[in-house]
Amino acid sequence: MKKRVLSALFCSVIGASMIVGSAVTAMADGVELDVVTTFAGEDSNAKNYQDGIAAYEEATGNTVNDNSATSDETFKTTVVSDFEMDSEPDVLFFFTGADANSFIEAGKVISIEDIRAEYPDYAANMDDAKLPVSLVDGKAYAVPTNGYWEAMFVNTRVLEAAGVEIPGDDYTWEQFLEDGAKIKEAGYTPVAAALGNIPHYWWEYSIFNNQSDLSVHTDIEAAAADPAAWIAGMEDVKAMYEAGMFPENTLSATDDETFQLFTQDKAAFLLDGSWKVGGIAGACQSDPEDPSTLDAEELDKYDVTVVPSKGNARAATDLIGGFSMGYYITAKAWEDPEKKEAAVEFVNYMTSDDMIVKFAQHSANPLKEAPEVDTSAMNGLQAKAIEFGARVTSYTGAAQDNFQGECRVPTFDGMPSIVTGEVSAEDAVAEGFEIYAEVTAE
Known about the structure:
By secondary structure, the protein is α/β, with parallel strands linked by helices. The protein has helices at about 5-15, 20-25, 45-60, 75-85, 100-105, 110-120, 155-160, 175-185, 200-210, 220-225, 230-240, 255-265, 275-280, 295-300, 330-335, 340-350, 355-360, 380-390, 415-420, 425-440; strands at about 30-35, 65, 90-95, 150-155, 190, 265-275, 300-305, 320, 325-330, 395.
């Protein structure tokens, strides 16, 4: 693509009030931006990110010093440490939950509100209601590119064999338990899950289902003061276990082993995240690393649907999901006259409508008006996921994102003890909150 075409595209993305031809020319001397993201390694958006950098550099004449790394606990620790040592980058793509608290509290990143006071078109294409807000001050700091949802994948081949219909958008908990009994009677496992290894998804939704107010779902302090929803949620998982909804070896199996039950037509339902679309497709390829080897007919047996609702505050189409990462502009860049505008333009470019569509694909997107997605190049499950996402009525963040480390042990690692009755749900939940209080106090 010619540079003049890229520049025109860049200007249209940023908006006329943000950047004009003279501004691009003025910046053509070359501003260097230090950028850190998680778009590296096997991240599916790593190539989209690198393509975006190349286009941004050609359109502006600026240079991006990219120090992206794979997201893990070491990455998180390194980023936080860099801020403590005043070695933070100019732009950072990072988590929006408790992991960001320390540098927000230190005033080392700039809120979207403050940036818009000077650049009104900053993130103007975003639905502000979807922007993740900080636990520190209730302000939005990060501009997301793509989000996630957690929902129930379905093996329709198993459902058909058991005489069970694909759940609709008003699927209830009672219907789910009834369907589970039919599936079990037909000789199949209703739910593929390894409670002794990865209880996360059922832990989350079982609590979510018992909330009387979805807005408090991620408020750990509120839950500690009134743990009724958490206790009821753990008891629901126990009831599922006692009803034989899970694999016989659910307490000892790995997540990979129970996933195979689902892909080998031995289990009907799989509760997981939007990222699992790729894993399911990979299971239908003769070469998991080569999408061209996909067996489209085999993939067609899968669908995605809602998680059953208990009829409290949550509708079945209200999902756990949202935007747990986004672009931050640091105070370091904001206070540098040369880098300030370049950083704003970089974030606006990387979060333009066209870029968001590329990054989000079948997952949640934060746009006010999402462009129509061309599904012609997608596989069948990706297309179904996009159709499903259009029916979602709300996203609520995961409570477990604010309840990490040792706090989780009594109910995550302790899930086998809860479902077998060795430890009561009430005691396990109380122990987790006691640890949370101790960690918070420290």
